[in-house]
Amino acid sequence: MKHVFIFLVLFSVTLNSQNQTPPKNVLFVMVDDLRPELSLYGQNQIISPNIDALGASGVTFNRAYCNVPVCGASRASLLTGVRPTANRFLTYHSRIKEDMPDVVNMVQYFKDRGYSTVSNNKITHIKNDIDAWDEEWYPKAKTWRNYLSEENLTLEAANKAGHAYENIDVPDAAYIDGQTALKSIEDLKKFKEDGAPFFLAVGFVKPHLPFNAPKKYWDLYDPNAITLPEHATFPESAPQNAKHNWGELRSYIDIPKTGPLTEAMAKKLIHGYYASVSYVDAQIGVLINSLTELGLRENTVIVLVGDHGWSLSEHGLWVKHSNFEVALQVPLIISDSRLSNAAHTNSIAELVDLYPTLCELTAGESPTHLQGSSLVSALKSPATIFKNSALARWKKGETLIMDQLFYTEWKRNNKVVSKMLYNHKTDPDETINLANDPDYLSIVKALSQQLEQFKTTFN
Ligand SMILES: [Ca+2]
Hints:
It is a single chain. The chain has two domains: about 25-390, 3-Layer(aba) Sandwich (Alkaline Phosphatase, subunit A); about 395-459, Arylsulfatase, C-terminal domain (2-Layer Sandwich), CATH 3.30.1120.10. The strands form five sheets. Strands 5-4-7-1-9-13-2-14 form an eight-stranded mixed sheet, sandwiched between helices. A four-stranded antiparallel sheet has the order 16-17-18-19, covered by helices on one side. By secondary structure, it is α/β, with parallel strands linked by helices. About 30% of the residues lie in helices and about 20% in strands. The model is unreliable at about 1-20 (pLDDT under 50). The chain has helices at about 1-20, 50-55, 70-80, 95-100, 105-110, 150-155, 175-195, 215-220, 245-250, 265-295, 325-330, 355-360, 375-380, 440-455; strands at about 25-30, 60, 65, 115-120, 135, 165-170, 200-205, 210-215, 300-305, 310, 320, 330, 330-335, 345, 350, 390-395, 395-400, 405-410, 415-425. The protein binds calcium ion.
């Protein structure tokens, strides 16, 4: 009897100490249109010391992919944990409330578990698409393009888009990403006082067009040192379906409506993209430093992710909206004090995997509707490949990534009308379409069947 009593006392002490451990907070940082051209990815043109430092405190996914390369659809898919199909999550204005209203979205999931839930600036693309936020905050800007120069504001007032970039000498908080960082720091202070677990989602909008960034971030780069990608023309062997007219960029006043850009303009835009990333990197730095100073870092899981990739003239294309890898790949860093530091993994991640990952990292059960799989095994053992495939779609183009093979097909009336295949082992820039190469016939057939099977599984 005495032994039973001691056991019960010990058991209850263990249980209590577990109960006393506060649940992990989540700081979810989403950066609009950020491609993984960062020094922690081994490409050191962009200066991003704060994102690099975050990588040093966590696991960087060398191979993370969005499931649809456009803001609204990608975010709606990520936040519901449901993949896009031919019938849902298709465009920039896709809404959870229209396409997938009946599932428990990620925000509702945390709210149901007693978390404070705050969204600062762009997390869903459409406002009021999620009811579970305790607060959905947006910074004050005259217009969504957030121009500050008189020239651009005058153009916009005349109902025109201004320039595709802006370089003026203003403080960080003059633009909305600076304001978003400051607001988020105030939230962290409140969370610290309240003591309740929090799910704080912070959406930075640069490097989305237009590339407006304070001058000091432009000045980090020597314009003469900016180079264009090696392959900046559309591959002759690629199908026309893979092409688009980069309409999002063409809407700006200094960009021609058709045809290629001049080399000078291409370099100016690349410079603007780099400056915008460095500007956001600085905001990420002040935010994470504040988390650390408040003593919240240890008990907070940090996720840093982009919503899709971006073409900076690779394949002769700009913006997102394609099935090429450069439009699909995103940066992804997950930092958790219990898991690996300064590690990289080649295990594939998809944005649809983030919801189940956060469930596991905060010790909650995953809702049964989730279509991704938790990445925690890769966070624990980054050297092991746990997953080697991903599925993405853009309009009618459906892409299956299988290890180093990137296969896309377009169908009409259930028949494949065009296809492309790139082998990244030999052609990482995707310049030679192998889909019609006789040596790859059986591979193409197998990939096409696997693609169909994946689609059926996740309908
Ligand atoms: Ca975006």
